[in-house]
Write a structure and sequence with these properties.
The complex is a heterodimer of chains A (about 350) and B (about 290).
Chain A (H helix, E strand, L loop, with lengths): L3 E6 L3 H11 L4 E7 L3 H10 L3 E3 L2 H7 L4 E4 L6 H10 L3 E4 L7 H12 L5 E3 L7 H11 L6 E9 L15 H4 L3 H5 L1 H11 L4 E8 L9 E7 L5 E7 L9 E8 L2 E5 L3 E6 L9 E6 H4 L10 H16 L7 H17 L4
Parallel strand pairs in A: 1-2, 1-4, 2-3, 4-5, 5-6, 7-10
Antiparallel strand pairs in A: 7-11, 8-9, 9-10, 11-12, 12-13, 13-14
Helix pairs in contact in A: 1-11, 4-5, 5-12, 9-12
Chain B lengths: L3 E3 L12 H10 L3 H14 L3 E5 L4 H9 L9 E6 L2 H25 L12 H7 L1 H13 L9 E4 L1 H10 L5 H12 L2 E5 L3 H10 L6 E5 L11 H9 L4 E5 L9 H8 L6 E4 L4 H12 L2
Parallel strand pairs in B: 1-2, 1-8, 2-3, 3-4, 4-5, 5-6, 6-7, 7-8
Classes of the chains: A alpha/beta (about 350), B alpha/beta (about 290).
Chain lengths: ~350, ~290
């Protein structure tokens, strides 16, 4: 059986996680690792049979790859992805996709013409409850959706990060919205597509010197749908990033977090009763072939690898990610951050 | 090995089922005294084994226990190291290199009886990465000095990453290190029990002590419930069953009826009210 050869570029927290999950997929072989930190590479080289590179160009000259996993700060995404595409290499990249909409559109166009597989790491699309919400929307369980709110909170930045890359607008592309709640922006695109207008947006700095720590945006669609996006990554009350989705429709309302789903329906729909019903993650959990960090990382990586191997369509294409980039940029524009 | 171990997720706002519950618990246990109050209830109910993650509060909790050795004389501690959030945040913020530098800095400040691997320095870490593992263990075990340790469990964040990387060669040496230095067994926490058992077998470790999810609804049992059950029934593993109540989704009686069908090394559970502790203890200790 053919093994698809891949490389992991960027061995931080996310790079290591993706490496552990991809490496154990039966149809692939990770042949190379690339990172600027020689210390990290030396550790891996000692323990694993893999080739290591501190330079991206050198790696591409020496390796024949079918795919690459990019987990570097967003500053390097556009230039790396363009080069990988020119060498017919499929790509999984961590979010955010690119620093701006123009870069995202360019990459979506390039890959569209190539037949290669591309995926961006908006892993929340694989959260079981959020996926269930999408199927409820498709089936029209709530009727016509009239309003929504997407909130995301975390205790990621609780002090001035100084010279850390996350604090730099140039390297990270932005703060809370770009680096953290791009997930929420992507969920809005996932459920409803691109809004027709960002009618209001505010961005605040709490601890960070260059980037924003808190964002609010109001969105509108021509069909009358209205919603908000609210995020704050400087809230110490949250041990882990926390998502809250609220939807309002003509047949009722819905509230969803990663762990709980509460429906309040005006009339019975399918197996869902009228009135309030609650569901928990334990009702939806299904096992995965390997669990590292969270099951959703495996679902995500396997979606990409299976799409690569079987030439199927995956959930988070460059096209959908470019729409998310559009939304992020519009919010920054309205908030006066561009 | 204690047959029943009292877990600590409820003290540190860890609930794999509900963020609301997590937040409530964090507010409820906002001081060491409040945590120790519940530990006393558990101890007096009959639970003599406590799992204690190397959370920043662990040192203070251990100080309280050390200050009254007479009262806590039957207690056996099961440390769970390293503390994931601490390291993941550090690695996320400053990368592996600076995290290791940080580790060394902390180690140099430790007394000469502790931290011998930590004194080794960066050169030794890269020449022999197993040294890094031993150094991390020394640092993480610091809060527990002087206490009776039943087994030292390595956290699933580390174990499952290494499993994905295909790294298993260090384990025999790490097991020996822990046996000799701490007079304790090495245990592995994982969410991939069958895969880990097979991997450890490749390096000559049979019937490892593993803590992993094991419950009636198959919650967090990967790659599937049937395989996990098979490994336990065939005694390929000495399993400490965790998530037995699936973070509250399974009633204790239902959980007990399931667990009693299997040859388990131990069962770990968490609870925060006297009533829940008593009820669950009574149910589980009956088999």
């Amino acid at each position: 059986m053919k093994k698809y050869k891949g490389a992991v570029i960027g061995l931080g927290k996310m790079g290591m996680l993706h490496y552990a999950i991809a490496r154990s997929h039966p149809a692939v072989e990770i042949v190379a690792l690339c990172d600027t930190a020689k210390f990290t590479l030396d550790l891996f080289k000692k323990m694993i049979d893999v080739r290591v590179y501190t330079d991206f160009q050198t790696m591409l000259r020496h390796e024949t790859l079918d795919f690459a996993i990019i987990a570097t700060p967003v500053k390097f995404h556009h230039i790396m992805i363009k080069q990988l595409l020119s060498q017919n290499i499929s790509i999984f990249t961590e979010k955010p996709f690119t620093r701006n909409y123009a870069e995202a559109v360019e990459l979506a166009k390039l890959i569209g013409e190539s037949g290669l597989t591309g995926q961006v790491g908006f892993v929340n699309r694989y959260q079981r409850i959020f996926d269930k919400v999408k199927s409820l929307l498709i089936k029209g369980m709530l009727g016509r959706i009239t309003g929504f709110s997407f909130e995301m909170y975390g205790g990621v930045v609780l002090r001035d990060l100084g010279d850390n890359w996350r604090a730099s607008k140039e390297v990270a592309g932005g703060g809370c919205l770009m680096e953290f709640a791009s997930h929420s922006a992507d969920m809005i695109i996932n459920y409803f597509g691109k809004p027709d207008a960002v009618t209001e947006a505010k961005a605040e700095q709490i601890f960070s010197r260059e980037v924003e720590d808190k964002v609010f945006a109001a969105l509108e669609y021509d069909n009358g749908l209205k919603g908000i996006l609210k995020t704050n990554w400087s809230d110490p009350a949250y041990r882990l990033p926390s998502n809250l989705i609220r939807l309002e429709g003509t047949n009722g309302t819905l509230k969803a977090t990663e762990h709980q789903l509460v429906l309040d329906l005006k009339s019975e729909q399918d197996i869902y009763p009228a009135g309030i019903s609650r569901y928990y993650i334990t009702d939806f959990y299904e096992p995965v072939r390997i669990y590292v960090g969270m099951d959703i990382f495996t679902l995500q990586m396997d979606d990409f690898l299976n799409a690569l191997v079987h030439k199927t369509l995956n959930r988070n294409t460059f096209q959908s990610a470019s729409e998310t980039s559009w939304l992020i940029e519009e919010i920054y524009r309205k908030a006066g951050r561009l | 090995m204690e047959k029943l171990i009292f877990g600590d997720n409820q003290f540190f706002g860890v609930n794999h089922y509900s963020e609301e519950k997590s937040e409530q618990q964090l507010k409820r246990f906002d001081s060491v005294e409040k945590i120790v109050d519940v530990l006393r209830i558990a101890y007096e109910t009959g639970l003599k084994g406590f799992m204690l993650h190397s959370h920043p509060l662990a040192l203070q909790i251990c100080d309280v226990i050390r200050s009254d050795q007479q009262y806590w004389k039957d207690l056996v501690i099961y440390p769970a190291i390293p503390h994931p959030v601490k390291y993941m945040n550090k690695v996320g913020e400053m990368g592996i290199y600076r995290t290791v530098l940080d580790l060394l800095r902390e180690g140099k400040s430790m007394s000469s009886t502790l931290g011998s691997f930590l004194k080794g320095g960066l050169g030794l870490m890269t020449k022999n990465p197993i040294t890094l593992g031993k150094a991390a263990i020394e640092l993480e075990m610091q809060p527990y000095h002087g206490l009776r340790v039943g087994a030292i469990f390595l956290h699933n964040i580390a174990i499952d990453l290494l499993l994905g990387f295909g790294i298993n060669s260090p384990y025999p040496e790490i097991e020996e290190f822990v046996n000799i230095k701490y007079n304790a067994e090495l245990g592995y926490i994982t969410l991939n029990m069958p895969m880990l058992v097979d991997s450890l077998l490749h390096v000559g470790i049979t019937k490892p002590l593993i803590m992993s999810s094991f419950n009636r609804i198959g919650y967090y049992m990967n790659p599937d419930q049937e395989t996990c059950e098979k490994y336990v029934l065939e005694e390929k593993v000495r399993l400490v069953a965790m998530s037995v109540l699936a973070s509250g989704a399974i009633a204790p009686q239902v959980a007990a009826d399931y667990l009693k069908k299997f040859p388990l090394a131990s069962v770990i559970f968490g609870a925060s009210s006297q009533q829940n502790i008593r009820n669950t203890y009574d149910l589980f200790s009956s088999f």
